Amino acid sequence: MQELTLSPGPAKLNSTLDPTHRMELILSTSPAELTLDPACQPKLPLDSTCQPEMTFNPGPTELTLDPEHQPEETPAPSLAELTLEPVHHRPELLDACADLINDQWPRSRASRLHSLGQSSDAFPLCLMLLSPHPTPEAAPVVVGHARLSRVLNQPQSLLVETVVVARALRGRGFGRRLMEGLEVFARARGFRKLHLTTHDQVHFYTHLGYRLGEPVQGLVFTSRRLPATLLNALPTAPSPQPPWKAPNLTAQAAPRGPKGPPLPPPPPLPECLTISPPVPSGPPSKSLLETQYQNVRGRPIFWMEKDI
To answer: One GO CC annotation, please (predicted)?
Structure first.
């Protein structure tokens, strides 16, 4: 039997337990309920200014949680349920798409929304990778984004930009699913090649079949009223500078002094004994570790392309 010892004054409950008995404490998310034997309930006047203190004898305890109240983890979206839709077809998802891109590349929200609002079927076109919401009545979740633009002087090519996947879903195949969806989307509209730039994802795109390529000029906007002469006037590549030539020292006349006979001519220059290496023929070799191109911020970038 359990024995309770009560003392007057500040209420203190001392629990003296039989060594042969162990106290079992069961906790659950529902309100705790303490039941005492009516025949053993003590009568104790408590002072309203004093708070009761309960002391438990340390001993083995058991914690039991109700399985019905365990927190549930949100399952990751299935790759088979993902869809690819233009952002201008789902204007209610503009804010969510802007937040996804700004999480990777911070920018003014108004400027980001304006850029997304320029998406159209005539290109440039912004595509969203969408996942069904766990709640059937709710809108889908934006988990990825990419932008497609036409390429100057290459009517069957598209430039891929602003490729991003939600941080929590990276490394699970969503980036591959996004790029594969872009290829299907572009090929269905008659395009046969994709171009892109990357700073630190060269190996990722190499595994998708991309190879190192040459820079291209993406068109920010397209219009049938825009004359071809104006498009051709856009800069494509910087013109090479003429090679620098050293002055001919042997052709100079001998200087004359102010008085006296002329000075003798200088001795001839020694012949160059070093042999310059031969210039390699053909285009320069390309490496996945080094690049000669930089973006507007001066960071090295790799131009890559893929036939689709």
So the answer is: cytosol
- 71 or 216, which is more confident: 216
Portion of the chain with pLDDT greater than 90, in percent: 46
Cβ neighbours, 10 Å, residue 154: 15
Could you give the C-alpha distances from 295 to 55, 75, 102, 198, 304, in angstroms and in order?
A: 70, 38, 19, 10, 14
- Dihedral sign (CA 127, 128, 132, 137): negative
Which of 198, 164, 199 has the alpha carbon at shortest distance from 179? 164
Selection from 169, 154, 256 nearest residue 215 by Cα:
154
What's CA 19's distance to the chain center, in Å?
Answer: 62
| Pair type for strands 154-165 and 193-198 | parallel
The predicted model scores a pTM of: 0.59
Q: How far apart are CA 171 and CA 304, in angstroms?
A: 21
Residues contacting 227, CB < 8 A, separation 6+: none
